[in-house]
Write a structure and sequence with these properties.
The complex is a heterodimer of chains A (325) and B (319). By secondary structure, chain A is of the alpha/beta class. Chain A has helices at residues 20-27, 63-71, 116-126, 135-145, 162-174, 192-209, 220-226, 244-249, 254-262, 303-307, and strands at residues 3-14, 37-48, 52-56, 78-83, 86-87, 89-90, 93-94, 99-102, 180-184, 212-217, 229-234, 237-243, 313-315, 318-320. Chain A is globular and about 65 Å long. Helix content of chain B is 31%, strand content 24%.
């Protein structure tokens, strides 16, 4: 398999927007937040053609920002993202329609004042994938493919349930005929029975269209189910990346181990259950800890971890950023 | 000995479009120190059941029938001031979103003192000591100084701990927790689950844990109730129910979980979506989505009893 997506040293920092008043106040010693948020720092990875890379992490770890960088919705502060060697962003603008996104919240991602036929056909018409005259048939076809009755094309988003809206959002993304789909928590807001329906739809369409995917989720079991490879993020960096089966069966980074231990498992036996939660909380991305960012919560941390940040290095088929992997 | 005995509870919402029977004939009981998981999807009536227990159902909803006996006292129809005296003292509630339940303009210490002083004469000093002890117990470091912080100065996980500490303040006999960890990250959720389990064990506080997440309930609860369209369609010890469900809906929920399938394979899915409470099908409300449904299912499902379990189904699955 060949690499189709290549992220190289992607970094994204969010600087606070300081008004003149804020600057003056800061100069006089007021408590104004002037530090930048380091949302994504020096992230490199590739996604192979027809592969799904799962991206896991807790809130604030930078996974959604990374998804937006990959999709060309946000520009990187430094580093680059390329599809088949061609940069996704040029001079702050997205240059390709080959990559599309499905967002988490189908209540917020669909324009409430626009009929869904207009929502689905706008992009393809603008990019000349379909003529205005052919748009109704095109929309009907896509609605059928995502399991909706084509007769609903003239409805507004509020007339749909959450699961149906997510189907519309998937149709909108796929109508642009992308090769690559970024899915940012696409099933997080859905009920279990509806989540299974949408995941099945995703699996079917992925196979039928030969899609390459970046699948972002905080739900480890969902990511395990859909991913070939998986990347674990902590505080803006990838700490472990490798084949999903291997990472789940034999996690090498203490954070990955802690995360997997924290997930409530379906207990079918009656024994007492011991949780082994990770101590502490995610540090603020405004002031990441020295050395390894995980060291304040890590049971194995030593002086070396406090001093030096471990680089991502190969350990068999997985890459791990830990001094003691 | 039972702490809580709910019999044929009916909470209905009288809307312009019709009567929504959000809770329609729910019965269960709870012993001191027991953890009961109440599981269901959106609109199943699990939260309304929780709100009914503490008398927080707002119009157009009201308890239309049934009985809630808490430690021998009937809560349905109880005078508001007597209910208020119970609520927060003997029955406490933890909500899903601590951002919305904590007062943003009062410090944590003030809010906790108010919760204590609402139920008895407590000096500010004693209230602060008690609040500090509770915050420490739920794992908040430097609790004494944190009393002076406002809710926005806490992270989401810490705020939920504060909400749990407030629920614990008066040493309640029963805590009703409505999706308390849904908004939290897994590592924080695991910390809170571990603490809640220890709490029920050590203090004998009974806990009703309302959740859509079977895995969380399975690792926390002693018994589970599965709700669908306002009814408890299945109940029993959590291990037995999840190992071999009687109701096809419970089976379907379990099989929908990615953890139950081979990676990359299609998941077993329940077709369709939950029915509108305003237009429930005749007989069994799950029948239109059920693979086992037949002509019999247009009649109300019978109550099937198996040892300490029950299900509402014409065609219960094996055991």
């Amino acid at each position: 398999m060949t690499d189709i997506v290549a992220a190289t040293a992607l970094t994204r920092r969010f600087d606070p927007h300081l008004s003149i008043g804020d600057r003056i106040a800061a100069a006089f010693g007021a408590r104004v937040e002037t530090r930048a948020v380091h949302a994504v720092t020096d992230v490199s990875f590739t996604i192979r053609s027809n592969e799904t890379l799962g991206l896991v992490g807790e809130s604030g770890c930078g996974k959604s920002t990374l998804g937006r960088l990959v999709a060309g919705i946000l520009g990187p502060t430094s580093g680059s993202i390329a599809i088949d060697g061609a940069p996704v962003m040029r001079r702050g603008r997205k240059t390709t329609t080959r990559i599309q996104t499905v967002f988490q919240d189908p209540f917020a991602s669909l324009n409430p004042r626009r009929r869904i036929d207009a929502t689905i056909s706008e992009g393809p018409i603008a990019h000349g994938l379909v003529t205005r005259a052919a748009a109704p048939a095109f929309v009907a076809d896509w609605l059928a493919r995502v399991g909706l009755d084509p007769a609903v094309a003239t409805r507004f988003p509020h007339q749909f349930s959450g699961g149906q809206r997510q189907r519309v959002a998937i149709a909108r993304a796929l109508a642009m005929k992308p090769d690559i789909l970024v899915c940012d928590e696409p099933v997080a807001s859905l009920d279990v029975s509806i989540q299974a329906q949408v995941l099945n739809l995703f699996l079917d369409l992925r196979a039928a269209l030969g899609l390459t995917c970046l699948f972002i989720s905080h739900d480890l079991s969902v990511v395990r189910h859909v991913s070939d490879r998986v990347a674990i993020m902590y505080l803006g960096r990838i700490v472990e990346i490798g084949p999903a089966a291997l990472v789940y069966a034999a996690p090498r980074h203490p954070y990955t181990q802690g995360l997997l231990d924290s997930v409530p498992k379906l207990r079918l036996d009656a024994d007492a259950v011991g949780f082994r939660p990770i101590a502490g909380e995610l540090p603020s991305p405004l002031s990441p800890p020295s050395g390894c960012a995980f060291h304040p919560r890590c049971p194995r941390a030593t002086d070396l971890c406090r001093r030096e940040r471990p680089e991502l290095a190969a350990h068999g088929a997985t890459d791990v950023a830990c001094h003691y992997a | 000995m039972t702490l809580l005995d709910v019999t044929d509870l009916r909470t209905h919402f009288f809307t312009r479009a019709g009567v929504a029977r959000a809770v329609d004939g729910v019965s269960f009981s709870l012993a001191p120190g027991e953890i009961l998981g109440l599981v269901g999807e959106s609109g199943s009536g699990k939260s309304v059941t929780g709100f009914s227990l503490i008398g927080l159902v707002d119009p157009p909803g009201r308890i239309a029938g049934g009985s809630i006996r808490f430690d021998g006292q009937e809560l349905v129809g109880m005078a508001p001031d007597r209910l208020r005296a119970l609520r927060g003292r003997r029955i406490a509630m933890v909500f899903q979103d601590p951002q919305a339940t904590l007062n943003p303009v009062l410090t944590i210490g003030t809010q906790m003192a108010l919760a204590l002083q609402a139920h008895g004469r407590v000096t500010d000093r004693a209230a602060a000591d008690r609040a500090t002890a509770m915050l420490t117990r739920v794992g908040i470091p430097e609790a004494a100084t944190r009393l002076n912080n406002y809710p926005h100065e806490f992270s989401g996980g810490m705020r939920q701990r504060v909400a749990i500490a407030m629920a614990l303040l008066n040493g309640p006999d029963l805590i009703v927790a409505d999706e308390p960890t849904t908004a939290l990250d897994v590592s924080i959720q695991a910390q809170i689950l571990a603490e809640m389990k220890a709490l029920a064990r050590d203090s004998g506080t009974a806990l009703i844990w309302i959740s859509h997440d079977l895995a969380t309930v399975s690792s926390l609860a002693d018994r589970v109730l599965v709700m669908y369209a306002g009814r408890i369609v299945e109940s029993g010890p959590v291990g037995a129910v999840l190992r071999a469900p009687l109701h096809p809906y419970t089976r379907g929920l379990l099989d929908s979980l990615p953890a139950m399938a081979q990676p990359g394979q299609r998941l077993a899915q329940i077709p369709g979506s939950a029915p509108s409470l305003l237009a429930l099908p005749q007989g069994c409300p799950f029948a239109p989505r059920c693979a086992h449904a037949d002509a019999a299912c247009t009649a109300p499902p019978p109550r099937v009893e198996r040892a300490d379990r029950h299900a509402l189904c014409h065609h219960p699955l094996a055991p």
